[in-house]
Specification:
The chain is an all-beta fold. The protein is built from 1 helix and 17 strands. The longest helix is centred in the first third of the chain and has 4 residues.
Length: about 240
């Protein structure tokens, strides 16, 4: 039985989360031309309880994942075939341990967020060796962000794809718009080495925890927000934002 931890089982995304056709939604965020993913991708990975770790993924010119390194250690994992476009910005693959995964890429083709069914989440940037070399400061999250988000059901099928925005103020409070309209919240702490920001949120539907993962260039944020009344993944949404 495979571990749910990314650096042990390498389940990069929620099984069928990025492999199942999306239903009709209010967003065309998956539009455009599929990107070329060949190259080295670096960033940060974190499960639901542990501290974040640096990550690097290498994809060759044929589209195969050839190397995965977590915290400087080669996992020995690779994909058994080329990464395939399941949507214009959504990709799926199968690794040599049988794990099925995927990741969702921004419109520039330079950043992506990922998720697995054990609630391992993270961010990668094309050409980056890992998180920002000089680390992060708490003010790096301040500014206006926009992009799109997804929700999934307990079978890890995508139930919604929607436009999403957020603005973080100088006191680390934030507000924005998502699937249920306006939300507000506050970032209370962060990991300075890896650029992961932890906070809480609320909207008309409920409230819960939120985490944002900054890319190495600090221009992209992969985020999750969960209402624990409904649990994971039913009470969660996942967004890809650009500054």
């Amino acid at each position: 039985m495979k571990s749910h931890k990314f650096w042990q089982g390498m389940a990069l995304a929620c099984l069928s989360l990025f492999l199942t056709a999306c239903p009709d939604s209010s967003s065309d965020s998956d539009g455009g031309t599929p990107h070329t993913l060949a190259g080295s991708w670096g960033g940060t990975i974190k499960d639901s309880t542990a501290a974040p770790l640096p990550l690097q993924i290498t994809i060759d010119n044929s589209g195969k994942i050839t190397n995965i390194t977590v915290d400087g250690a080669n996992t020995g994992l690779s994909s058994i075939a080329s990464v395939t476009a399941e949507g214009n910005n959504i990709y799926g693959f199968e690794l040599n341990d049988g794990t099925i995964g995927g990741f969702i890429v921004d419109s520039s083709g330079q950043h992506a967020g990922f998720l697995d069914d054990g609630f391992t989440f993270g961010v990668v940037q094309k050409g980056a060796p890992g998180p920002a070399g000089g680390g992060y400061v708490n003010t790096d999250i301040i500014g206006s962000w926009s992009g799109y988000g997804v929700t999934i059901d307990s079978a890890f099928n995508i139930t919604n794809v929607f436009n999403s925005t957020g603005t973080v103020a100088s006191n680390f409070s934030f507000s924005g718009n998502g699937l249920n309209g306006t939300f507000t919240g506050n970032f209370a702490s962060f990991y300075s080495t890896n650029g992961v920001y932890l906070g809480t949120w609320s909207d008309t539907s409920g409230s819960g925890d939120l985490q944002a993962f900054l890319s190495a260039d600090k221009t992209f944020a992969a985020t999750w927000a969960c209402d624990w009344t409904y649990g994971f993944p039913d009470g969660c949404s996942f967004s890809a934002w650009n500054r």
